Structures are given as C-alpha cells and as structure tokens.
C-alpha cells in the first residue's frame, strides 16, 4: 500500500521497555559525554563524537547498549512455507547493513535456525575508518531482571541481551569522531563499497609510501646515514631527487590511475605524504576526524541526557532516566530511525501450517522481538526503529508522561522530503534518512524517569493482555529456561550468561542421571571444544566411524572454536584430581563428554566419535532449544 507517512508517530502502538540495574555515574554530569553530529567522512551520514577526553580502556558512555535477535528472516519472508530460494530473498530489510552475528556478541544461544542480532547505539551509529579505529566493542550480558512467563505479563516483550559496552582502544580527545571496526568482509561483500579501504589496504598503502619516498630521494641513500631505515630522518624537500613540479605531476598520475583499488584510495593527499611516511597514514587523516566542541554544540545533538535504570513502571523492565536537568521544550534525546516500508517483514510464521501456497495472516505465530521497539501508525505499513543509545528504554505512561516525540528540525540527519514519499520510494532506500526527537513537555529533574504516551490503542491492548495473562507453573513448564539462568558479573562488558548451577555446588547431570531427573525438554547441552585438535585431513571417506579420545586443553576455548551438542557421560570431583594449571575456579567438578560430529571433506560426509575428558564446568552450557525462549510467546 502506497501511503504517505508524515503522521506515522501520531499513534504509538508498541511497548518500549527493556531491562537492568541502575548505571553508575562517574563523571561531571554538566558536560555532555557524547554527541551525534554529521560524520567527518564524506557521504557517511551521521557519526558519534566524544564530548570529553577518554583514557585507553575507559568505558565510553554511561552504560552499554541492548541487542535484539531476529530469527529465520529468509524463511519468514519466503513466498511459500518452505525454505526461501535466493530469488525469494528480495525483501526490504534495511537492518542488513547494521546487523551482527550472535557469535560476535558472545552469544551462545540459538533462537532459531538463522539468527541475526541488531545492536542499537554503538552497534549502529559509529562509522568505520580502518586507519582511525579508536573504539573496542564487547560482548553482551544476559539479564531479564527476573521478568519471565512465571511472574510477569511483560515476559517475551523485552530482549535479554543487554549492556554491550564500548571502551577506548587508545586515548581519545574531546571532539574526536568515534570509529569501530565493521571487519573487512563487511565492505568486501557490498558492491557499493568496492573501493573503500580496509585494514590491509592501509598496510599496503603504507608500504607503497615508503617505496615512493625512497624513490623521491633517488633510491640511493647516502651511506653516512647509517641503517637503511634511517633515510626517513633525511626525507625533506632539499634532499629529494625530483623537483616539486615533477612530484606534483607524479602524485596526480598515481592518484588518478584508471584502475581503482582500495589501497590507492587509502593514500593521503600530496601535502600529507612526508608526514604519512614518518608517522603513518592515520596521523594525516586524524586531524580531519575532529570537530570542535563549539561545532558539536551548534550542529550536533547531545546523546548523553538519559541512562538506563530499573523502571518505575511495573513489568516494564528497564527505563530511561535523566542524567541532568532538562528544561521544558528541551531535547531529551535524538532518535535517528531506520524505516521498514512493510511491517509484515517482521512476522514470524507457524512452520507447521500452510506448507504450500503463500503465507497468510492466519499463520502468524508472533513478530520479531525488535518489533516491540518500533513506532508506527495503525493505518500505515511503515514502522520506524530508533537506533541511538538508550532511547529503547523510554517507557509509557498515559497520564504521567513528561516527554513527547516529534520530527527533528534543522538537522542534517533528517530528510524532511521523505515524509511525503510513498512506500515504493522507501523500499528503495537502504540507509537511514529520518530522525525523531524526544522533547520534554515539562521541566524534568535529574534522576527522573523519562515517559511518553504510546497512545490509547496501545494502552487498551496492554490492559487486555494483562487481564487475560496467567502465570506458568515452572515445575510443569518445558518451554522456558530463564528461571535456571542468571547474569554473570564480569566487568568491562566482556560478559556472558551462565547456568545458575555454576554459582552453587550442584553438579551437572550425567546422561544416566538425566534418565531419573531430566532437564526440561527444551534444554540443550553445548560443549565448547575444538574437535580439529590433532586431526588432519582424510585421504578418503572412512569405512568405519573414526574414534578419538583425549583430555580437554586450553586450546579448546581459543577464538574460533565451536560449541557442539554433547552428552555428559561422567563426572569427577576436583578434590580427587591433582591439577597445577588451573587459572581460575571452574567449579568443583570436571566432566567427560561425548560428541558425534558430522564432518564434510571434499565431496563426502561422515561421522566422527569424540570423547573429551576433564572438561571444566564453564566449557559446558545449558541453553534453550531453538524456538522455546520467551521471545516466541504470542
């Protein structure tokens, strides 16, 4: 349906709650820590900027960002009820350029067969410049604030993946644009970015510059200069073999060579050649990645006015709280949005129904969890996802609201003409181009929760849901595992979630013990091991199943190793095991596990049988089976 959506925010129909403990303030609350402003990279849109200095390793911002899982997008958007073919994957999913893999966020949970993770804030807003990377991003935490189907009608409406923090990779000065790594493959897999320099491009460009500098000096350094690399100390105009005009012409020829490459695009302008040879290419481009604080105050928006905390609204999880006094009519938070032209792309369908023919609304099981964090109008197919930091925590109160939403004004990140376009135009746009703003409707004091009115339609739907909701008895429920988990407490964002039993003396149950005392049917057991240790390639397909037995080693948990479905075949108390290499306490027990792996080599498939002994407790995870977590509740 073609629909002009200028009034899309006049009715808000979706809950906007998320979840965790109050964040600690550790800085001067009168100064803005972070700004949203036009990026210093041409045609890159908006960027994040430091409002103050950050030391290496220091957390940037007051708290981390949430992540949202989307499952089986290709299948749910296929024409029929079977797996989508390549031709059928032509649907508008603008988060393609913003999504992360579960593994990159430290998530072991598998919600579906094909998971993608959206991280707002630092997971979506900063740009990537491989010669200026100054921000490190970490894993998420798992924390529902004990909000689940056993005790809350809000269960299933909020994401459990929270507090993905970001820290300074090096000292960052106030006014610097903040850059994160997308990974080289992000650019290599997108035709529109075929000439954007990646990490190895700058390495090649730096080597080329040194050869170029040596050539300018005639390729014959004076022997009195000492070691070969000492020629750089004498690199100056008077020591060069070619005059300035010849240098200018030569560099113009290099920069305009018809065969474009990423490495060539990484080269600096001619004025920065000598500095780049001496100090590196990043030393030349860094000066162009700075904005003055005065510029940011006049042309940017402060994104540091709110911070997550435990909401005052029952069953809402987390809320957003003011970090400083905000005047009536003042900006609470900027909210650039990613648009979805057709909200039906967010539907999750019942796989057991309608195997043939086009899916219908009757087959909708639920919607993707991220739909709960979007704004829309009941008469429009368009929905909008705000993706700046912490706005996902702003909750609803129809009588006590202290803020409102409006379209941004006088800001380069907002294309007002888009408001008068139809959905055909929007489906052709794969980048964000619209922005909302949360504005105070009265004076808001520091520490006060930010609330808006989602609208009468949303309130009625919530009231009906609460009235019909009944809690589930955990002893009879085999569809959720959240009551057995709790968050870890590791710092700096390098967190994950662990079984509650890891914090007690209760052992993991072996296969024999599970016959009498089984785990819930939806619980899956995963072991973190590297099954390729000590195993080479096969010259032919094995006639019988290869069998391998070895002890678990530190290399089993190295980066890149996998988690396999496994059976716990034995358990020993560490009191009877003499060890000298434990670096941390992994619990009082060690385990033997059995893994059957299906392996593909060349054109043949076969099975391997692995027995791994003395596996530590923290290398074994109990997780939800696919499609059983609270996010799949109707």
Please describe the topology of this protein.
Elements: E1 34-38, E2 46-50, E3 67-71, H1 73-76, E4 99-100, E5 115-119, E6 135-137, E7 141-142, E8 161-162, E9 166-168, H2 184-188, H3 199-216, H4 244-255, H5 262-266, H6 273-279, H7 281-285, H8 293-299, E10 301-302, E11 306-310, E12 318-322, E13 331-340, E14 347-349, E15 364-367, E16 375-376, E17 383-386, E18 395-396, E19 403-407, H9 423-427, E20 434-440, E21 451-452, H10 456-468, E22 485-487, E23 497-499, H11 511-516, E24 523-529, E25 547-551, E26 562-565, E27 567-573, E28 589-601, E29 604-616, E30 620-624
Parallel strand pairs: 18-21, 25-29
Antiparallel strand pairs: 1-2, 1-10, 3-5, 4-5, 6-9, 7-8, 11-12, 13-17, 13-20, 14-15, 16-17, 19-20, 22-23, 24-26, 24-30, 27-28, 28-29
In summary, what is this structure?
This protein has 634 residues and is α+β, with helices and mostly antiparallel strands. The two termini are 26 Å apart.
Structure characterization notes:
By secondary structure, the chain is an alpha+beta fold. The chain is globular, with a radius of gyration of 28 Å. Mean pLDDT is 83; it is low at 1-27, 81-88, 486-504 and 577-584.
The whole-number mean of residue pLDDT values reads 83
Principal-axes shape call: globular
Q: What is the number of beta strands?
A: 30
Structural class: alpha+beta
Widest sheet: strand ordering: 16-17-13-20-19
Radius of gyration: 28 Å
Count up the helices: 11
For the record, give the distance between the C-alpha atoms at the N and C termini, rounded to a whole number.
26 Å
Largest sheet: 5 strands, antiparallel
Helix proportion: 10-25%
Poorly predicted runs of 5 or more residues: 1-27, 81-88, 486-504, 577-584
Which range does the strand content fall in? 15-25%
